[in-house]
Amino acid sequence: MIQDKTDIGTFIEGLPKAELHLHIEGSFEAELMFKIAERNDISIPFDSVEKLKKAYSFNNLQEFLDIYYAGANVLIEEEDFYELTKAYLDKIHRQKVVHTEIFFDPQTHTDRGVDFDKVITGIHRALEEAKKNYGITYRLIMSFLRHLDEASAFDTLESGLKYRDIIDGVGLDSSELGNPPSKFKRVFAAAAKAGFKLVAHAGEEGPADYIWEALDELKVLRIDHGNRCLDDEALTKRLVDEQMPLTLCPLSNTALQVIKRMEDHPVKRMMDLGLLATIHSDDPAYFGGYMNENFMAVAEALAMNKTELAQLSKNAFTASWLSPAEIAKHHQAIDDYVASFGI
Ligand code: HPA
Ligand code: ZN
Questions:
Q1: Residue 235 belongs to domain with CATH number
Q2: Confidence check: pLDDT of 337 > 70
Q3: Which ligand sits closest to the CA of 172?
Q4: Nearest ligand to residue 251 Cα
Q5: What residues make up the domain containing 162?
């Protein structure tokens, strides 16, 4: 049966959603980048927003990261981090995202001489405001850049300890190939000891072995991406048995050519195998869409029905760091929403 695109679009727009894989620096829209660059008197090597956006064409993760770090260069003041985060939260509020667990990359800023305090204070102010004004709940995850060394990650952890009441977890991102999770085993152990929850990007471009390492050596609670787990039957079985969340990002995967065509995206296969798959936006300003666009992309390409889309959203709440009572409340809201469609 051919699905009614408008009908599915309407369903997705109103579906309560949780975002668990979002780099706040990756939500930096070109328009805001130009505005902040001008305010901080920093030049961008593009004449216009249109020309900058034309450069958003990537053959792999590294090509994207080079542009992503260049864009983040214009963020200097607390106000810049506040505006960046506020713009993201305003956007997701319109998309019916009611809970978000966001990454920020301290080293992207501290390595340029920007104070850790300015970064976190700006982000946190916007999050608190959105909680008050929109009722959006949140968690904050400080992510280590894996292309940098262990000592730099330890310095970052040290800075984060001062904000232990604001930062809920630590993550691992940036250039995956050649930077296996094991490189950060000791930092993750120290972070766990300090009470941080743990996640890591693994199996995006890197092999299934990196997912094993993230599980066994870092002891993470979620795998970010994890697409490559399907290369390894024993690993897939373990992920199913443990109901380990995999935070998938479909538009990121096609933009970075991790997956050639959306029709090849493994999310539906993963659900059929019993994996706890979830859908998120990763770096929406660069990859062509926020949560709704990601849901729509898989719904269309894989002909997913409303029940399957609702299950994906429920999975994200299950995988979130909300309390069991809050998770149950969100699951009920989704069930009620689905029922309102006569399903
Ligand atoms: N992968 C790895 N590191 C990242 C990404 C990503 O998609 N976005 C920002 N840092
Ligand atoms: Zn990511």
A1: 3.20.20.140
A2: yes
A3: 1
A4: 1
A5: 5-339
